Amino acid sequence: MTTEKLSFREKLGYGLGDTASNFFFQVFNLFLMYYYTDVFGLPPAAVGAMFLVTKVIDAVSDPIMGLIADRTNSRWGKYRPYLLWGAVPYGVCGYLMFAGSPDMSPTAKLVYAYVTYTLMMLAYTIINVPYSALMGVISPSSIERTKVAGYRFICAFAAGWMIATFVGPLKELLGGGDEATGFRITMIIFAVLSVILFWTTFATTKERVVPHRVKTDVRLDIKTLLSNGPWAILFASAIVTLMNIAVRNGSLLYYFKYYVGDDGTPLLLIFDKTAVFLSLGLISMIGGILLTRYLAQHFEKRILMIALTLLNALSMAAFFYIPPDQYWLMVTVNCIGSFLIGPTPALVWSMYADCADYGEWKSGRRITALVFSTVQFAQKMGLAVGAGLLGIVLGSFGFVANEIQSETSMMGIRLMFSILPAALAILGAAFIFFYRIDQQTIVEMEEALAQRHEDSAVA
């Protein structure tokens, strides 16, 4: 089977869409919990509860968006139109999350947080479900999709590096010492950039996989999804993996502020300890992503996912034992762990696309957006549960914002930054053990689907 190789322009254009996503996604991972508790003035337990409660909406909106996108037919394709029309609402809602005033009453602040967070998650769903599904139809070749996924996550973590490196200094510089104003102005910048980048993705990509024509039936689509064993494995793994990310990233600012003692004093030029730690870690992760293509060509994705995840878990657990004055040891261990985990996002997203192929291969129905929407819901659920767990645990350990922490609350911060995310990473690897789409299966699927699509086009 011969497959058109995707151009550098298209692979980069697709990747820039995840740069746009991560301008907000990484802010939420790294700064949102801190913003809500230490800047906006909400209790950590209330924030944790909000993250969990609002997932009820995502449980409905994500699969519905997947069903809608799979049924969309336009001159631009099924998924690309949403990049064009969803970009501006996405940018506006992301900015509004940081536009509230800390002087509002406690009740008003909580209501404002619920409303703006919910609106942002809906905007995220409307644009990111089609964006993710686009990778499943950008090429019929698994290896080409893996290459695209590599570009995607280089761009994603480049955005993460920008957020980790510059949000802290920018909020101080633009806010003149007022963190609320600094966050607000900083997010205007990233909101505008996000809109421009999503439009760039729309303009530079193309949908190439045209599914075999079948009768529209929501019940059959859902039945096809639920009978897809590899999808179910990745769904479960996504929940615990993103719980791991949410717990660790959400606790990072607390870890450095209260345990390491980062008071914002510049360590390198204008960058403090936290920014340097994050920046070097993300650069190391990008280095790991550059190995994705090589690794995917020489090893089974499943084996790579398990091995790299377990090694990263070991690096996270090590932080429980590193003394607070060993900053550069922390940086070194984090860089090693980040490098090891670098290839896994691209690998797992290409595995999601393989699951869409697998479902069509077995059932004759292609439900690309539904597959990606439910996995995205699993990820958002994992992030919400992880962030909710972080808020609840901090509250139960007696955390008080902007105060000297007790031994008990300090222990809670340390556990949330090391042992708990490591345990969740191990659980995620355990799920991947049961994933059963190997390279031989991929070759069989691609050949069978290519013939089926050719026959459908002739008919």
Automatic annotation (TrEMBL):
Q: A Pfam family name for this chain? A: MFS_2
Listed Gene3D superfamilies: MFS general substrate transporter like domains
Domain Major facilitator superfamily (MFS) profile: residue ranges: 1-440
Q: What SUPFAM superfamilies does the database record attribute to this sequence?
A: MFS general substrate transporter
| Residue ranges of the TM segments | 12-36, 42-61, 82-99, 111-138, 150-170, 182-204, 225-247, 267-291, 303-322, 328-352, 381-401, 413-435
- Which segment of the chain is annotated as a signal peptide? none
User: Which CDD domains has this protein been placed in?
Assistant: MFS_MelB_like
Lineage, top-rank taxon, reads: Bacteria
Keywords for this protein: Membrane, Transmembrane, Transmembrane helix
Q: Which PANTHER family match?
A: MAJOR FACILITATOR SUPERFAMILY (MFS) PROFILE DOMAIN-CONTAINING PROTEIN (PTHR11328:SF24), MAJOR FACILITATOR SUPERFAMILY DOMAIN-CONTAINING PROTEIN (PTHR11328)
Q: Family, per the entry?
A: Belongs to the sodium:galactoside symporter (TC 2.A.2) family.
Q: What is the name of this protein?
A: MFS transporter
Give the originating organism.
Answer: Congregibacter brevis
Q: Supply the source organism's classification.
A: Bacteria, Pseudomonadati, Pseudomonadota, Gammaproteobacteria, Cellvibrionales
